[in-house]
Amino acid sequence: MLLDGKVALVTGASRGIGRAIAIRLAAEGAKVAINFAGNTEKAEAVKAEIEAAGGEALLVQANVADAAAVEEMVAKVVEAFGGIDVLVNNAGITRDGLLVRMKDEDFDAVLDTNLKGVFYCTKVVSKLMMKKRSGRIVNMTSVVGVNGNAGQTNYAAAKAGVIGFTKTIARELASRGITANAVAPGFIQSKMTDILPDDVKKAYMDTIPLKRFGTAEDIAKCVAFLAGPDADYITGQIISVNGGMIG
Fold first, then answer.
1. Alpha-carbon distance 7 to 24, whole Å?
2. Which residues pair with 240 in a beta bridge?
3. How far apart are CA 111 and CA 132, in angstroms?
4. Among the four residues 12, 98, 150, 160, which has the most C-beta atoms within 10 Å?
5. Known catalytic residues?
6. How far apart are the first and last CA of the chain?
């Protein structure tokens, strides 16, 4: 398996894309620390699924927008598993609304979790990786961070920030054997997209050359590749997983 003997920390891993990533990395042999903010029941379900398949997992509750909580979370993972080889910064929230109506607190909340959270987690974990002179960092950005989207100035700004952050840390950490890349999902099937009207779904589908919405597992496969040995010479890249909807 690609990640035998490795330890991975996945933030926002109790649902959606984060859940799929945690399960995939465990299937590749990694011990997985499942970070979650509030939904203990869903996080426990992910842990149970990993363990039922023969994997090893640890629950670590923390708000990634809280620097002290991040420090404590990383310490717990190190205590339990001995270190961190793979960091997947996936935790994110939305507070959508048109710019002219957006509240300051909604803009700040999204930037705090989706961008500052990446900063906090990477700053702490990269110090561990630098000592080992090896590591894989995978940050989740979005097609919205590349292309923009009406009603999501806060989300787009945060995800665009993740791109610049990733390219910069890739340069800073390369000499220590650490790679840093980002994955930019496109239109991913979810409970939220399932309830969209058929005409809206068709409009989105018409922009996707592969003529299907992506799945969380599509994203997880890309993350597993970037976390593994076959991606040794890939760093500072933004990998779009969007069915061809944009370059």
1. 13
2. 184
3. 31
4. 12
5. 155
6. 31
What span, in angstroms and rounded, lies between the C-alpha atoms of 86 and 178? Answer: 10
pLDDT in tens, 150-189: 899 999 999 999 999 999 999 999 999 999 999 999 988 8
The token duo for 153 is 């100035």
Q: According to the 3-state scheme, what is the secondary structure of 37-103? A: CCCHHHHHHHHHHHHHCCCCEEEEECCCCCHHHHHHHHHHHHHHHCCCCEEEECCCCCCCECHHHCC
Q: Tokens for 202?
A: 């068709």
Tokens of 83: 């270190």
Give the integer Cα–Cα distance in Å for 238 and 241: 10
**DSSP per-residue letters across 169-220:** HHHHHGGGTEEEEEEEE-SB--HHHHTS-HHHHHHHHTT-TT-S-B-HHHHH
Each residue's pLDDT tens digit, 194-236: 766 788 778 888 889 999 999 999 999 999 999 999 999 999 9
Q: Which two tokens stand for residue 180?
A: 């840093």
Half-sphere exposure of 31 (CA within 13 A, CB side): 14
